[in-house]
Amino acid sequence: MAPSTVFMESDNLLTPKEKNKLRKPVVEKMRRDRINSSIEQLKLLLEKEFQRHQPNSKLEKADILEMTVSYLKQQSQLQMKRSFHKSSQFDFREGYSRCLQEAFHFLSLHKVRTETQTKLLSHFQK
User: Fold this and answer.
1) In this structure, are residues 67 and 93 in contact, taking their beta carbons and an 8 Å threshold?
2) What does each C-alpha distance from 103 to 16, 61, 93, 112 come to in angstroms?
3) Strand, helix or coil at 111?
4) Among 2-11, 24-33, 50-59, which is the least confidently predicted range?
5) At what angle do helices 61-109 and 16-45 cross, to 10 degrees?
6) What are the two backbone dihedrals, phi and then psi, of residue 77, each rounded to the nearest 5 degrees?
7) Which positions ≥6 away from 65 have C-beta within 8 Å?
């Protein structure tokens, strides 16, 4: 009799509780393998960052996780600073543009010579 046939026949004799006891170590090993695989992927993805902080040292799993969290926080802060900087630049340009429109409107209402208007507007657009 083939081994799979024997297992299937004995599988029918097991109670659900006994089946769970047999399955639990296998499921647990699969879970640990997934965790280890993910930690190894993090290590490979952030290898340069790890070398910068701890060159020539063997990293434990906890070290890899801690350094990954630290790196992600740092990247998040940098991204927030960049978006704030872009936002403030946009606000400045928007305000400057609005001011230029107001100046042009003012000049057109007060019969300022066209040559002066042109010089002033070209100066503002530098």
Assistant:
1) no
2) 84, 63, 15, 11
3) coil
4) 2-11
5) 60
6) -65, -40
7) 39, 42
